[in-house]
Specification:
It is an enzyme of class 2 (transferase). InterPro entries: AceGlu_kinase-like_sf, Asp/Glu/Uridylate_kinase, G5K_ProB, Glu/AcGlu_kinase, Glu_5kinase, Glu_5kinase/COase_Synthase, Glutamate_5-kinase_CS. Belongs to the glutamate 5-kinase family. ATP binds at residues 28, 230-236. This protein has helices at 15-20, 31-34, 44-59, 71-75, 88-111, 124-128, 130-145, 168-178, 215-220, 232-246, 260-265; strands at 24-29, 63-68, 116-122, 148-154, 183-188, 209-210, 249-254, 270-273. The longest helix has 24 residues, at 88-111. By secondary structure, it is an alpha/beta fold. Helix 3 (44-59) packs across helix 5 (88-111) and helix 8 (168-178) runs parallel beside helix 10. An 8-stranded mixed beta sheet has the order 3-4-2-1-5-7-8-6, with helices on both faces. It is globular. It has 11 helices and 8 strands. Bound molecules: adenosine-5'-diphosphate and ligand VHF. Ligand VHF binds at residues 30-31, 69-73, 95, 153-154, 156, 167-168, 228-231.
């Protein structure tokens, strides 16, 4: 196994430095973090910790956009047994139900700390079509300007297999590029990219830094067993490619515990993906 630190290794950096120096961050929240795997209930105490972290970042002058999963997981409770795959139309209805509950929880948590919240439900067209992308970006910029924390999700209630993103890892990466974010944080149910799925192989090792997504790195990524998760590590590496091509950093970290951003700042396990060189002239929308 070649070195797990790709390319020339860099002086040890702390995650805290990376996060603190980011003017604008995108925080992606996986379904398994915000919705209880068994009941589909929103994990309220956990959400309070996340929002506490977000508000702390904003209070020190940083801008944060949240990309949240969980609409289908939360809404699925209306369809009885949680252990079966929903049909497309059931999934759309579940998302329509769950999204309202998600946004209510985000709204109440932010309101308790004096912040507003704004919801954007995007389709692939909103990011791929330049005019619609500029429009979505303008809305996000305006929300940040008025001190409302933007919360983004895919518009699952109406997207179909033909026009959906399908996973929020890549959606978050595209949103980060859209708004020229400095760091994309993927909060997941695993510490980062491992040499193999750690649920399959407890001896798998955590990859701490990636500077080039080689076939060796790609071969490590598998899908997810989690019921409502859509991407596994495969879509996270796709997101990393978007990030590295666009010139911003990405980090995957385990968000299960409370105060997940503080855990990264305090040097908790994670995988950082660094673009070869910060592309100052990166393509703009
Ligand atoms: N090489 C790997 N390293 C880490 N996790 C992996 C890997 N390959 C597959 N996985 C799986 O991907 C899961 C994380 O993806 P997912 O369940 O979709 O989380 P999220 O809800 O954050 O999108 C892990 O729990 C793990 O089971
Ligand atoms: N838009 C979907 C998210 C799908 C998704 O990417 O889920 P996850 O893999 O848990 O981040 C929802 O809100 O359920």
């Amino acid at each position: 196994m070649s070195s797990l630190v790709q390319q020339d290794s860099i002086p040890a950096i702390t995650s805290a430095v990376q996060l603190l120096s980011a003017r604008r961050l995108i925080v992606k929240v996986g379904s398994a973090l915000i919705a209880d795997a068994d009941t589909g209930e929103i994990r309220g105490p956990w959400l309070e910790g996340l929002i506490e972290d977000v508000v702390r970042f904003v209070a020190r002058g940083q801008q944060v956009i949240i990309v949240t999963s969980g609409a289908v997981a939360v809404g699925s409770r209306r369809f009885g047994r949680l252990d079966r795959r929903l049909q497309i139309v059931e999934k759309q209805a579940a998302a329509a139900i769950g999204q309202v509950q998600l946004m209510h929880a985000y709204d109440q948590s932010l309101k308790r700390r004096g912040f507003g919240v704004g919801q954007l439900l995007l389709t692939a067209e909103d990011v791929d079509n330049q005019h619609r992308c500029l429009n979505a970006r303008a809305t996000l910029e305006q929300l940040l300007k008025v001190g409302a924390v933007p919360v983004v999700n895919e518009n699952d209630a109406t997207t179909t297999a033909e026009n959906c993103f399908g996973d929020n890892d890549r959606l978050a990466a595209r949103v980060a590029h859209m708004v020229n974010a400095d760091v994309l944080i993927l909060l997941s149910n695993v510490d980062g990219l491992f040499t193999q799925d750690p649920h399959d192989n407890p001896l798998a090792r955590l990859v701490t830094e990636v500077r080039c997504i080689t076939p060796e790195i790609e071969a490590m990524a598998g899908h997810s067993a989690a019921r409502h998760s859509s991407g596994g590590m495969v879509t996270k590496l796709m997101a990393a490619k978007i990030a590295m091509d666009a010139g911003y950093e990405m980090v995957i970290a385990n968000g299960i515990k409370s105060y997940p951003l503080a855990a990264i700042e305090n040097g908790g396990p994670s995988t950082w993906f660094f673009p070869r060189a910060k592309d100052k002239d990166r393509a703009r929308y």
